[in-house]
Amino acid sequence: PTLLFEKGRGGRRFYACSACRDRKDCSFFQWEDEKVSEARLRAREEVNRWKQQEYRNRFEELASVLHHEKKFCDDCQMLLLPAEHGAHSSHRTTAVTAAQLRRPSLLLRPLDNKKSNAQYLFTDRSANFLLDSLASLGYTKVLCVGTPRLQELIKLQKSRSMKSLLLDIDLRYAQFYSQNEFCHYNMFNHHFFGGEASSAVLKSFLKEVGEEKVVMVADPPFGGLVKPLANSFSLISQTWKDLQDSDGPTEMPIIWIFPYFFEPRILECLPSLSMLDYQVPAGLRNHVSGLVF
């Protein structure tokens, strides 16, 4: 999944990775007018689908594995099936409990490359404050865009009748959630790596039935381009709107956590948003705190 860039003003245009801002992390490059064969295009799609299906199969197989046989490889950042234990014997592995499987963000190492994932997680205090606020406003469904820790806490708090769906580019989370709980997603160009099947999961989640109320909470990488992000959020909002009754609200409720100095750009793209007086500290040090829009 790419974006169309331009070499200087009026220069030649090209496609490059939308998620990584350093060619060392993703070397994809293609001129806008370059012809690409159908076979090459199909191969790209198949690679993405194969990776997601592999993780999905792993999730289903692990569901039937006895708890004492479940292990996690810290070197490979993956849950291991019993047949794989031997191949990872020289790696750092540990047994995992049911409680740990419900908190994947504590098992997985954050992807903290500032020019790509920039994965800085909410503290539990911040996530719980958000949940309490959303619950008090009557929201029953939370679309978690790049907010895996928020998803975890929603799943843990069974006392609340709140549902969630995580959209994230970190495919590792597919090991811990079903296809109705996680979609491999690039928020910079609204791309679902799982294709139409994942798009259908989102549409099903956004549909409000009875007293249900949906809200989106997004925590993009703080160095990301505002315009592509706003475009993706607008497309999600439009999908939500198309699914609602004509006499309902006209705009999907959105909470966007981002640095305060991006306020002018955000309001230029999404003028209905307004900056709130809430500061969200990051779960890791050496990171700029975000403000809520």
From TrEMBL:
Gene Ontology MF annotations: rRNA (adenine-N6-)-methyltransferase activity; zinc ion binding
Source taxon at top rank: Eukaryota
Keyword Cytoplasm: yes
Pfam family, one: Zn_ribbon_GRF
Signal sequence, start to end: none
Subcellular location: Cytoplasm
Keywords: Cytoplasm, Metal-binding, Methyltransferase, S-adenosyl-L-methionine, Transferase, Zinc, Zinc-finger
Keyword Cytoplasm found: yes
One term under GO cellular component: cytoplasm
Residue intervals of the GRF-type domain: 1-35
Family matches, as PANTHER family: RRNA N6-ADENOSINE-METHYLTRANSFERASE ZCCHC4, ZINC FINGER CCHC DOMAIN-CONTAINING
Name of this protein: Zinc finger, CCHC domain containing 4
Organism of this sequence: Nothobranchius kuhntae (Beira killifish)
Taxonomic lineage from the root: Eukaryota, Metazoa, Chordata, Craniata, Vertebrata
Gene name of the encoded protein: ZCCHC4
